[in-house]
Specification:
Elements lengths: L2 H29 L6 H24 L7 H12 L4 H4 L6 H8 L1 H14 L3 H6 L2 H18 L10 H14 L1 H13 L5 H8 L17 H10 L4 H21 L9 E7 L3 H13 L3 E7 L5 H6 L10 H17 L1 H5 L1 E10 L17 H21 L8 E6 L7 H12 L3 H15 L2 E8 L6 E5 L9 E2 L2 E3 L9 E4 L2 E16 L2 E11 L2 E6 L6 H13 L2 E2 L7 E2 L12 E7 L2 H9 L8 H4 L4 E6 L18 E2 L14 H4 L4 E5 L5 E8 L4 E6 L2 E2 L8 H5 L1
Parallel strand pairs: 1-2, 1-3, 3-4, 7-17
Antiparallel strand pairs: 5-6, 5-19, 6-10, 8-9, 9-15, 10-11, 11-12, 13-14, 15-16, 16-18, 19-20, 20-21
Helix pairs in contact: 1-2, 1-8, 2-8, 5-6, 6-9, 8-9, 10-16, 13-14, 16-18
């Protein structure tokens, strides 16, 4: 069964509703009967829905794939042109513009509606008539509130809010069924059909996704088409071998699994095609999730908390019910899911968002609900896709937007991704042998860097068979290398400071975080003149930045529980990939590296969950056979009695670059010390080779 079959029955059921609502949309587009400026709003967005309808009809007739390049580009412009940066200032999808034009009472809600209509783009190209139909019906229902109204007799705000609320409440079942099926069921093969059957030398294939296609997507696809097949296969092999090694090193049985989820950027189809073949040789089918670069990051930022308009306890409880039901429906496929294999990209211009008062923001109770929901959904997911049986891998490559030296940087990245596994493993083991003797580790900055931090290390009961640090080489997190641990929170104190760092795509200047007993006590930066604004910036985007799972880095904006107004230090690590550090400096791209690579370019500290979140009870081992025992802290130790307090669903790495680092010193119980790094250079015997890239 292919993806068309997945929608056949529901499309037939929706067909009559679709025809009726489509007629109504056409009437609104031609002559909306509402007071201005609302009439203009409804005409504009009805016209947008008309363009979605036209594309659906093309797909239904089979003519989408036959479009000329000019037609493809024109259709893409029709779908995304209004939210591109150059047009966004006068778009109703912009909350500030919508509020200015439509008033504060309805501006936010109608901007939310305009943004939601755009979520139907990809569904139209899949041939999912239900999603298009219900989006159109929502639009018409809201329009009906304004139709025929006088300018001084507009509908009640509550009336519109209730329409939106019940739409998202009632259709959560549809949304969750779709999400879970695409995660675990290989029958949802929309992306796979493009990857495996399209003529990848004809770049028109990029426009078959329905996603925004910009210069990055076009240029990376064109560039990969110039590479020899051997190079493409080598890239795919590094990616899939890392996935396989991840199972081997953790002692998990990959042969029990039937599928892997491939997550990839649009434009990388040639590499992904080779990777799919590799997975099939392992006996794994694939589910796939493709994503393009953002049409406008400010647009995404503006709408990151739109759920605040309708989120309440009943909505959350309804969602947990539908999430569990969706997994129960797909439990056989879920049991066979081995985990995600992720390709990330980097090189876009760093983004500093504008915070708009008109955008929706979660209230305090909603913040609590969001984390409760996230925690419960995570537990449900782990019931069906068992954490102790799954693994993952993640690798990253640059985009053409990284600059004129893109091809050089791409070649260097490939080199970094394929560094000598054994060389790094052995050097990192020498560090671990000393770090395992530590009572505490002292980290200090140099020059303007004010870092002065003591990290309390897990005490080993059986040093011959146990270790506190994981020896991380090129398996699940490509490239090599780092050694990391879950710190003991009590006794972890001091200041972490970085002159400039990019976290989740946002820039922080002079980021300072003070820890007391392992918990964030104070924080500030110098991004803004107003100190309160600096604190709010960190609070909103670091302390309150949440992810679906720590391993896949697929970012979602959630919030933090009231009793989690702080976060623990979930990880202390020493990055050893000095080759990546040198690349960043030579090409001046430190601000564009993804955390996957950046975390390997110096010591780093994660705020949030540990690296072993939800897997604390699953024993794992280093290559030397020692059991990794530092897998929890006093926060995650609550997981059996109070899981909602144990897991924060976030893990944000903050890296100190070598040139801001003075020392990393092991302090033993008897007071003796030994340096791992001094004056920003590796000084431990047997690790000196790591300095070669630093000294070039």
């Amino acid at each position: 069964m292919g993806y068309q079959e997945c929608y056949k029955e529901t499309n037939e059921l929706a067909a009559e509703r679709y025809e009726l609502v489509a007629e109504r949309i056409a009437e609104i587009a031609e002559a909306a009967q509402a007071p201005e400026p609302f009439a203009e709003y409804f005409r504009t967005n009805a016209a947008y829905l008309q363009s979605l309808r036209a594309l659906y009809e093309k797909g239904k007739s089979g003519s989408l794939a036959a479009r000329s390049m000019e037609e493809c580009e024109a259709d893409n412009e029709a779908l995304y042109g209004e939210i591109l940066p150059e047009a966004y200032g006068h778009s109703y999808a912009n909350p500030a513009y919508a509020a200015a034009r439509l008033g504060e009472t309805f501006g936010g809600a109608l901007s939310l509606l305009a943004a939601h209509l755009r979520t139907a783009c990809g569904e139209v190209f899949r041939g999912n008539l239900v999603q298009l139909t219900i989006a159109m019906e929502l639009f018409v229902e809201v329009y009906n509130c304004f139709e025929g109204a006088a300018a001084d007799a507009l509908p009640q705000e509550k009336e519109v809010q209730q329409i939106v609320y019940w739409y998202f409440h009632d259709y959560r079942e549809i949304f969750d069924e779709r999400s879970v099926r695409r995660l675990v069921n290989p029958a949802e093969d929309f992306e796979k059909e493009i990857v495996m059957q399209a003529d990848l030398s004809d770049l028109r294939y990029l426009y078959r996704y329905g996603a925004y296609i910009g210069e990055n997507e076009r240029q990376i696809a064109a560039y990969l088409n110039t590479l020899p097949e051997a190079d493409i296969q080598a890239m795919a092999d590094t990616y899939t071998e890392g996935y396989q090694i991840g199972f081997e090193t953790t002692g998990k049985d990959l042969s029990k699994k039937t599928a892997a989820q491939v997550r990839y950027p649009i434009g990388f189809e040639r590499m992904v095609r080779a990777a799919v073949c590799n997975f099939e040789k392992m006996g794994l089918e694939v589910t796939m999730l493709a994503s393009g670069t953002a049409a406008n990051k400010q647009y995404d930022y503006d709408h990151r908390e739109d759920r605040a308009y309708y989120l309440d306890k009943a909505y959350v409880e309804r969602g947990l019910e539908t999430w569990k039901n969706a997994f129960e429906e797909e439990k056989v496929h879920a049991n066979g899911m081995a985990g995600p294999a992720v390709i990330e990209v980097f090189g876009e211009e760093p983004f500093s968002p504008e915070t708009k008062k008109e955008a929706f923001r979660y209230g305090e109770k909603q913040q609590q609900l969001c984390v409760y929901e996230m925690s419960q959904r995570g537990q449900i997911t782990n019931q069906y896709i068992k954490g102790e049986e799954r693994s993952f891998t993640i690798i990253a490559y640059p985009l053409p937007s990284i600059g004129a030296r893109f091809e050089e940087i791409f070649a260097e990245t490939v080199k970094i991704n394929t560094l000598d596994y054994m060389l790094y493993r052995n050097m990192q083991q020498k560090m671990i042998d000393v770090l395992d003797q530590a009572d505490r580790v002292h980290i200090t900055g140099k020059g303007a860097n004010k870092t002065d931090l003591y990290v309390n290390i897990w005490k080993l009961r059986n040093p011959e068979g146990e270790t506190a640090f994981e020896n991380c080489v090129a398996d699940v997190n490509i490239p090599v290398g780092e050694v990391f641990t879950s710190p003991v929170l009590e006794g972890t104190n001091g200041k972490l400071h970085v002159g400039q760092v990019y976290l989740n795509g946002l820039n922080y200047k002079n980021l300072e975080i003070d820890f007391k007993d392992g918990m964030v006590e104070k924080y500030t930066c110098t991004n803004f003149e107003d100190e309160a604004e600096n604190k709010n910036y960190i609070r909103d985007n670091v302390l309150m930045h949440h992810e679906t799972e720590e391993e896949n880095k697929a970012l979602v904006k959630q919030m933090i529980l009231k009793n989690h107004e702080t976060l623990p230090m979930g990880e202390f690590a020493i990055g050893t990939n000095t080759t990546a550090y040198r690349m960043a400096r030579d090409y001046d791209i430190a601000d564009k590296l993804p955390i996957l690579i950046a975390e390997k370019t110096g010591p780093h500290f994660a705020v949030g969950d540990t690296c072993y979140s939800h897997e604390e009870d699953n024993l794992s081992y280093n290559p030397d056979g020692k059991a990794i025992v530092a897998r929890e802290n006093t926060v995650s130790a609550q997981r059996h009695e109070n899981p909602e307090k144990a897991y924060l669903n976030c893990h944000t790495d903050i890296t100190i670059p070598y040139d801001e680092l003075d020392k990393i010193t092991v302090i033993r119980k008897d007071g003796t010390t030994e340096d791992i790094i001094a004056d920003g250079r590796f000084v431990l015997a047997g690790t000196e080779a790591l300095n070669e890239p630093l000294d070039r």
